[in-house]
Every structure is written in C-alpha cells, then in structure tokens.
Predict the structure.
Amino acid sequence: MVLWLVDGMNVIGTRPDAWWRDRHAAMVALVHAIEVWAATSGEDVTVVFEQPPRPPIRSTVIEVRHAPRPRRDSADDEIIRLLRDVAEPGGVRVVTSDNWLADRAYAEGASVQPARAFRELIDTR
C-alpha cells in the first residue's frame, strides 16, 4: 500500500472553478472527493493545507493536516517533515505540481504524482 501525501491547495488549484471565492468550500469538496476515492481504493491518504480549515474539516477515512504556521509554501515544508518521519519513504507518493516540492520528495526517496493527474484519478470514482 502507498501512503499518499497530498498538497491540498495545489490539487484544488488545478481547476479554475472560482475556488478562490470560497476556499473552505473548496477544501471540503477536495476532502470529500479524496474520502470517496480512498474508501473504495483502500489507499492511505494525508491531505495537507497551509492553514487550518475554519471550521475544521474532520474525516474518518483520511487524515486532514495543516502546517503549524500558515505561510506561503508551509504545506510543502509540512509534507517533507511528514515524509521524513516515514520509515520507508519509497512507499510514499507526494501529490504536487510544485517542482521544488517534487524535487525535495524525490531526494527523500518518495515518488511524485502531478496534482492534475491525481485530481483526475479521484474525480473518476
């Protein structure tokens, strides 16, 4: 089984559907789509956001996390921190379209899936 570490806002940003008008609703919709996919596929998924969703988003299917301090690229740093805590980084797939994060993930031994391809994967369920 693969552990998926998902850069949440990066995946949300793959679709220009005016998500920026209601970031929280976009976050809720993404978590729901990932939950449905993970429940049917059995995949282990952690989605990471830059800042804590307000109100909080809870899930019994996937892990919803956020960076300790909200700032630009803080989710990237949190993803790398989580990746470094994994005993077998080769079993981790980082979802991002951020080249800098992808390079860091590869350097740690993880594989990378582009955000758009992941969005298509979870939207086909």
User: Anything to note?
Assistant: Strands lie at 3-7, 44-49, 63-66, 92-95, 111-113. The domain at 3-123 is CATH 3.40.50 (Rossmann fold). The CA atoms of residues 90 and 110 lie 5 Å apart. The two ends are 19 Å apart (CA to CA).
